[in-house]
Amino acid sequence: MTFTLDGHDIPFEPGQTVVQAALAAGHYIPHLCYHPEFQPHGSCKVCTCTVNGRTATSCTTPASEGLEVASETPEIQEIRRDLVQFLFTEGNHFCPSCEQSGDCMLQAVGYELGVVTGHYNPLFPNRPVDASHPDVLLDTNRCILCELCVRASAQIDGKSIFALSGRGITKHLIVNAESGRLGDTQLATTDKALDVCPVGAILRKRTGFRVPIGRRTYDARPISQVTVEPAK
Amino acid sequence: MNSLEKAEHPAGLKRIAIEPVSRVEGHGKVTILLDAENRVHQVRLHIVEFRGFERFIQGRPYWEVPVMVQRLCGICPVSHHLAASKALDQVVGARRITPTAEKLRRLMHYGQILQSHALHFYHLSSPDLLFGFDAPVAIRNVVGVLQAYPEAAKRGVMLRKFGQEVIRITAGKRVHGTGSVPGGVNKCITPEERDLLVAGLPDVLRWADEGIALVAQLHGAHREAWDRFGTVRSNLLSIVRRDGALDLYDGVIRARDADGHILVDGIEPTAYGDLIRENVRSWSYMKFPYLQSLGAEHGWYKVGPLARLQNCDFIPTPRAEAARQAFAATAGGQIVHAPLAFHWARMIELLHSAEVIAELLDDPDLLKNDLMASGPRATTGVGIIEAPRGTLIHHYEVDAQDLVTQCNLIVSTTHNNQAMNEAIREVAREYLDGREITEGLLNHIEVAIRAYDPCLSCATHALGKMPLVVELLDATGALVDRRVRDAEQLA
Lengths: 232, 491
Ligand code: SF4
Ligand code: FES
Known about the structure:
The complex is a heterodimer of chains A (about 230) and B (about 500). Chain A is α+β, with helices and mostly antiparallel strands.
């Protein structure tokens, strides 16, 4: 069974989504809230493609025989650039002083798409830093609301420590504790929720900048290559 | 010593304001207040740099700070990177960092000194010194130097390139690298990287020698003018190695008076707060530091190459030490206070940096992988380093949750604040002619400011000329005369 992606034949197995099949076949489709270990979420929209002529999030679209998927068209890339620029300007992302720089998916997808500036007026939202946990720092300035930590904590750690609250522009990440502080939760350093944040919002304390420039995830190769050939 | 602010009641005085056309953060402005007889009464150098930066650091995790503070300065980010790291070493309990970490940081630092001194002298100041302060702006720039003195211009470019390579290799990037972290460094260097730098050393050492020869020759040719221009006597302050040697990376605080007598010595960096006080004046965002024991009136001091070279007992590398002795000999053992002598001192430090880099590259510790140290946590950290422009102090308080709760930064431009004001006043007294704002006055003020190498974007404009507006206002604020110099005219 195959579908086409930008003219390439992509084989797939029943139950796979377009993104899953494309990545397995070595074709990168930009994405942020998709993570191979979790149910697709479809919230960031960065994986948007044209599927049989209609735009759709490819991480939630089941692969099916004969689908025609267009990913790297100028129009679609423009939509993705806009979405990434919205994410940059909705939060407080200062890449030069962020410890996740070089390991950050948002930054890497930005580079991949040729995003050089935020373009839109930054909102400079007032977002809190929660340092109450002895080993984990939560800096919501950089949260892109992908809910990966929410999913990981609920589905794998069985703790449901994170959740999103509010709607639209007021939507934000909250911590499940009466105090609202991470230090008052059962979050442990072995939790999966600590390792899924695509940006620099959930961080292990006191480890920032320990990996030198040149050896970070996306220093040598762009995210499109790292994602489809991680071990290289 | 004269009080800077002689005008108790500025009303009734004319005001000449020199300010950059574009009011971008980082630009300075000079106001000269005249009395009824058109004599210079008061000078105010306004600097807005660094205002409020502390606010960005408060509430941030401490390990982010050494990278974040690099944004304080576009020309010496490495100095902030290292001063913050040194302060935070104490917070993470690394009372001694590993030999590899210390040597890698030193290499980074001396690379920065070398490139910054080369930039300052060859790109920014040499046009003034080679062509004369009154030469037309059209030739008195780095392009003019390239045409008339191609060897010197090339030397500047190549020295800078070498320094930037040292920074790239040690910090990971030429600007805003991450090499130094609280407690150590995140990498050592590879044999290939070392060999790359070693290969460049013979040229660098030769160019450094030639730089000193050039300054000495310029001084010899204009001796009287050089020694007098903008000269104000003051105390000197810097860190020195515990044995009194010049050390730009680490040491204890020493201060001398204007005649060279030691005022204080061996002060640990953590005690800087008892030694130095800072005065606030209503017209300036930048504070005025002074030695507490001498008071605000007499306690102000110079920092930077000229202070360091005369504060230390000796330079621990042979060629720079010989150059220091030759420099001291021309002054007959007297302390030199002339702003233009900064350039000479700068070139001697450039040679010293090249010699230190050569020594470090020969050290096998640089290739070892023992990078980090730690120990019992502390809440306070003070890091002092000699940045290209002078003493740089970083002081942080960090809470139990790892966030910075307080920080105090005293940058070299702040230390030199009063000295620069005094130098400009000297120059204005000499070159201000009645009610007319001459191009000559502008140029001379600019040269005096630049000798101190303040961290102003306007002072480091690519072509070496500050875009200026000069306005002569009467006591009621009405415009009497105006002179504009745009950056575009220079291109
Ligand atoms: S904290 Fe990270 S993982 Fe959680 S929602 Fe925000 S960006 Fe996603
Ligand atoms: S990756 Fe598909 S919507 Fe986020």
